């Protein structure tokens, strides 16, 4: 099991969108087999279907546990979804709106909800991962602005991966905006490589943002001046 972390304090709070896969006729069948299940079709991210044909549903016990997770971890966006490939996982994480986005499969969430020891283990992994992310941010220093947000993927086998979603205009070595690693040292290595390889692009993006901020400030000042003149 990969359990990385221990670099500082984390601060958290969260919203929890869901995603699921669908198969023809599976909805009613699943409900018939388990009346403790609830269909989350209304919570799909834009109707996104991912993973296998298994319909992702959560028991009432898992729903209740998920609500506790949301309250415990502040600005985390928990994404509950099945997926088969890294690309699907990346797409789900990219849709998250939290400062930290956490991807968990429905089956794993059910195990966490049913067994306190499992919940404690994986919550510890989440906390360690957030500590690592905060460490990575501090190590990046003023270059931390190259990352839009971070994501954490929890796997049922106890392993995790951390994904840094780069700002628009930057790409990692695979051509996407996602830089993924299993350890914080590996993540830092890849982020530093991206920073070096795309230094010119990053400088251009910063320049454009600075100019945009300047124009926005000038516009606000002009509007305030007009408003003051009108009142006078």
What report would you give on this structure?
It contains seven helices and eight strands; from the N terminus they run βαββαβαβααβββαα. By secondary structure, the protein is an alpha/beta fold. The chain has helices at 26-33, 60-72, 86-94, 106-114, 116-140, 184-197, 199-231, and strands at residues 14-15, 37-38, 58-59, 76-80, 100-104, 147-154, 160-166, 178-181.
Mean pLDDT: 76
Shape: globular
Structural class: alpha/beta
Largest sheet: 6 strands, mixed
Helical fraction? 40-55%
| Radius of gyration of CA atoms, rounded to a whole number | 21 Å
Q: What is the terminal-to-terminal distance?
A: 69 Å
- Spatial arrangement of strands, main beta sheet: 1-4-5-6-7-8
Please tag this protein with its features:
alpha/beta; six-stranded mixed sheet; 7 helices; globular; disordered N terminus
Describe the protein's topology.
Blueprint: E1 14-15, H1 26-33, E2 37-38, E3 58-59, H2 60-72, E4 76-80, H3 86-94, E5 100-104, H4 106-114, H5 116-140, E6 147-154, E7 160-166, E8 178-181, H6 184-197, H7 199-231
Parallel strand pairs: 1-4, 4-5, 5-6
Antiparallel strand pairs: 2-3, 6-7, 7-8
Helix pairs in contact: 2-4, 4-5, 5-6
What's this, in brief?
With 232 residues, the protein is α/β, with parallel strands linked by helices. The chain has helices spanning 26-33, 60-72, 86-94, 106-114, 116-140, 184-197, 199-231, and strands spanning 14-15, 37-38, 58-59, 76-80, 100-104, 147-154, 160-166, 178-181.
């Amino acid at each position: 099991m990969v359990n990385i972390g221990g670099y500082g304090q984390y601060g958290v709070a969260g919203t929890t969108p869901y995603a699921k896969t669908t198969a023809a006729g599976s909805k009613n069948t699943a409900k018939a087999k388990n009346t403790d299940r609830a269909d989350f079709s209304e919570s799909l991210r834009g109707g996104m279907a991912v993973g296998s044909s298994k319909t992702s549903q959560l028991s009432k016990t898992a729903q209740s546990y998920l609500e506790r997770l949301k309250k415990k971890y502040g600005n985390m966006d928990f994404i509950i979804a099945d997926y088969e490939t890294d690309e699907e996982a990346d797409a789900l994480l990219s849709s998250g709106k939290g400062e930290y986005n956490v991807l968990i499969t429905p089956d794993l969430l059910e195990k966490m909800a049913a067994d306190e020891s499992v919940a404690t283990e994986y919550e510890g992994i989440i906390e360690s991962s957030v500590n690592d992310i905060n460490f990575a941010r501090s190590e990046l220093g003023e270059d931390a602005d190259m990352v839009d947000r971070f994501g954490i993927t929890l796997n049922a086998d106890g392993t995790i991966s951390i994904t840094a979603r780069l700002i628009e205009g930057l790409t990692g070595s695979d051509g996407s905006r996602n830089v993924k690693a299993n350890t914080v040292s590996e993540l830092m290595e890849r982020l530093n490589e991206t920073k070096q390889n795309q230094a010119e692009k990053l400088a251009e993006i910063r320049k454009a943002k600075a100019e945009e901020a300047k124009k926005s400030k000038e516009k606000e000042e002009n509007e305030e001046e007009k408003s003051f003149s009108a009142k006078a």
